[in-house]
């Protein structure tokens, strides 16, 4: 076998690997793509986007604080929680330790998944100058937890004399973000329940999740003694909205706007995914976008 033929075979195998990695997993989804179509009101909310578990030069790592602040602003983060010894301005805040099950940490994933993801996702999309999906979007989240917080623990290996970080904070912060919705603007002290009311975004999409009744509005992580309507808005192409009650899946919707009547007591949570294309009831290229803590309807 000559070298040219060997290269051609290797390239063909790699190309098929890229194609398969982009369209799997394939899911057979029995879904009910219907919901109430009545209009619904919007709550007035403050949205706060933050990065959790950021490593910096404060703990002996490389990494320019100036570059971190600049990247936070460019990517729309309001503040970062990390290894800072004290609060720096309004953007850098020492991080509290969270229970391990709350944190979506890429370092806990198998090394083989990282290698495959790098070869078949990062490399081809870098060569074609398109944005690669994060490795966490590849996982199929079947059971929503009470709390999900995306970690941004990537480490800066080298800071050059010219002020360039390798890898950059832009790479470390990636497209994942944590969003806290509040009726009130945040003060000097973060509320104690911020992490348990955080919606984890694994990709940079604008998706709204809230509940409402004649009495009030309800946000992810909150509870009420009154029945309510759960609203999910995923204004994008090819959404898949998975609805759970007490961690049991009760519906899958392919609509961009879902309105569900939560009439029975329980904890209602949402996972939003997207897919590349479908053939009949088979969905190809599923990616996870949003993981939401529940809105609970408590029994009297």
Overall description:
The protein contains four helices and 22 strands. It has one domain. It has helices at residues 3-23, 65-75, 111-127, 169-173, and strands at residues 27-28, 46-54, 79-82, 92-94, 103-104, 149-150, 158-159, 165-166, 177-182, 198-201, 207-212, 217-218, 223-224, 228-234, 239-245, 248-253, 257-262, 266-274, 277-279, 282-284, 287-291, 295-297. α1 (3-23) packs across α3. The protein is flat, with a radius of gyration of 21 Å. Strands 2, 3, 4, 9, 10, 13, 15, 16, 18, 21 and 22 form an eleven-stranded mixed sheet that branches. Strands 12-11-14-17 form a four-stranded antiparallel sheet, with no helix packed on it. It is 18% helix and 32% strand. The chain is an alpha+beta fold and 300 residues long.
Helical residue percent? 10-25%
Rg over CA atoms:
21 Å
* Total domains: 1
- State the distance separating the first and last CA atoms: 76 Å
What number is the mean pLDDT? 84
SSE string: HEEHEEEHEEEHEEEEEEEEEEEEEE
The description of the largest β-sheet is: 11 strands, mixed
What percent strand?
A: 25-35%
What sort of overall outline do the alpha carbons produce when their principal axes are compared? flat
Total count of strands:
22
- The unreliable regions are none
**How many helices?**
4
């Amino acid at each position: 076998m000559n070298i040219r033929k060997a290269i051609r075979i290797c390239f063909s195998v790699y190309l098929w690997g890229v194609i398969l990695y982009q369209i799997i997993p394939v899911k057979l989804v029995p879904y009910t793509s219907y919901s109430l179509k009545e209009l619904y009101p919007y709550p007035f909310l403050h949205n706060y986007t933050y990065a959790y578990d950021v490593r910096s030069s404060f703990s002996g790592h490389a990494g320019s604080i100036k570059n971190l602040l600049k990247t936070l602003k460019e990517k729309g983060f309001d503040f970062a929680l990390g290894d800072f010894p004290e609060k720096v301005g309004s953007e850098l805040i020492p991080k509290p330790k969270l229970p391990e099950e709350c944190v979506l940490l890429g370092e806990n994933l198998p090394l083989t998944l990282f290698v495959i993801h790098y070869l078949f996702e990062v490399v081809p999309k870098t060569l074609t100058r398109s944005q690669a999906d994060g490795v966490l979007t590849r996982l199929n989240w079947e059971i929503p937890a009470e709390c999900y917080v995306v970690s941004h623990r990537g480490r800066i290996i080298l800071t050059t004399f010219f002020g360039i970080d390798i890898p950059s904070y832009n790479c470390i912060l990636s497209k994942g973000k944590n969003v806290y919705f509040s009726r009130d603007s945040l003060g000097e002290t973060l509320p104690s329940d911020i992490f348990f009311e955080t919606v984890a975004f694994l990709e940079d999409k604008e998706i709204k999740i809230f509940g409402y009744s004649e009495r009030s509005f309800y946000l992810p992580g909150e509870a009420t003694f009154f029945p309510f309507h759960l609203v999910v808005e995923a204004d994008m192409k090819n959404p898949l909205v998975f609805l759970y009650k007490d961690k049991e899946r009760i519906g899958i919707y392919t609509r961009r706007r879902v309105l569900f009547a939560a009439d029975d007591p329980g904890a209602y949570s949402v996972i939003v995914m997207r897919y590349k294309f479908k053939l009949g009831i088979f969905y190809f290229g599923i990616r996870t976008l949003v993981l939401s803590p529940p809105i609970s309807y408590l029994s009297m």
